[in-house]
Structures are given as structure tokens and as C-alpha cells.
Amino acid sequence: MPDPTLTHVFTLTVAIGRPVDHGETGAGRRRVIPITGGTFEGPDIRGEVLAGGADWQLTRPDGVTEVEAIYDIRTDDGAVIHVVNRGIVAPAEGGPPYVRTAPRFDAPRGRYDWLNRCLFAGTLKVANAERTAVEIGVWRID
After folding, report:
1. pLDDT tens digits for range 112-126
2. Which CATH number covers residue 111?
3. Is the separation of the CB atoms in 42 and 10 below 8 Å?
4. How would you class 49 by CB atoms within 10 Å of its CB: exposed for 0-12, middle for 13-18, buried for 19 or more?
5. How far apart are CA 23 and CA 30, in angstroms?
6. How far apart (Å, rounded) are the C-alpha atoms in residues 68 and 50?
7. How far apart (Å, rounded) are the C-alpha atoms in residues 102 and 67?
8. Mind listing the pLDDT tens digit for each residue in 58-95?
9. Is 85 a member of any domain?
């Protein structure tokens, strides 16, 4: 079996609303960030991010933030795909934080059902100075 490689699938630009802070809990500080829309595009797939999802976050006592974003995307030919994207943002001493996600897809049978049969890795970064959008890169692990 060859070593894994990565193939870029698409990049999402996800519009987000104001965070809702839940405060400190026994596990850490919780907040939820509404997903209000957006777009995505790659070599073989493109479309829109549907409003109504959210990113649930927990910042643990060790400073690591666990993220779990749940939302839907609709391709330009009408397929609706459910997304669950979990990951971490871990501070690093003297450098940028470690930020990685592991998106999973639930696509309808047909043109996009290959999304159901692969593993993916993702990146996450703030997309604009106003902090009203994030950019998520998605790569298939081959």
C-alpha cells in the first residue's frame, strides 16, 4: 500500500454570525457560532453553503479549542450534502497554532456519493479582517 497523498477537493468560504458565549462549564468554555451562508468551489464541485448550521466550540483548560461544525452544502446542480467537520485549534509556543479538521460528508447517491467513501483532511482560517467568514480547505486522503 503506498503512503497517503492529498488531493484538493474544494475550498469553502463560510459566512458566520456573532458567537454565542455559553460561559465556563466543567469541560471548559463553550460557544456556538452560527453559519449564515457562503460558497464553495473546487475542480469538480461547486455551490453554496446553506444557512442554518453552526460551529460548536469548546476551549479546554489546556488552551486547545475543539470545533464541531455541522451544516449543509448545495451543489450548483442541486445535490444537498450534509457536512460534519470536527477539528482542533491548538496554540503553539513561538509559532502559529496547529489548526486541522476532519470533515465527513453524507452525500446522496449519484454523482457525489464518492464523498461517502473517502477520508478527508481540512484546514481552517479566518477569511477576512471583519471576522465574518472563515475559509475551509478540504483535501481527499488518497
Report:
1. 999 999 999 999 999
2. 2.40.160.20
3. yes
4. buried
5. 6
6. 16
7. 10
8. 999 999 999 999 999 999 999 999 999 999 999 998 88
9. yes
DSSP alpha helices (H): ranges in the chain? Answer: none
Residue 48, C-beta contacts closer than 8 angstroms, at least 6 positions apart: 37, 38, 39, 40, 73, 74
Query: All 3 cell numbers of residue 124?
Result: 481552517
Measure the CA–CA gap between 104 and 142, rounded to whole angstroms. 15
Long-range contacts of 2-6 (CB under 8 A, 24+ apart): 4/141, 4/142, 5/141, 5/142, 6/121, 6/139, 6/140, 6/141, 6/142
Domains identified in the chain, total number: 1
**CA-CA distances (angstroms) from residue 74 to 38, 48, 66, 87, 89?**
10, 5, 26, 22, 27
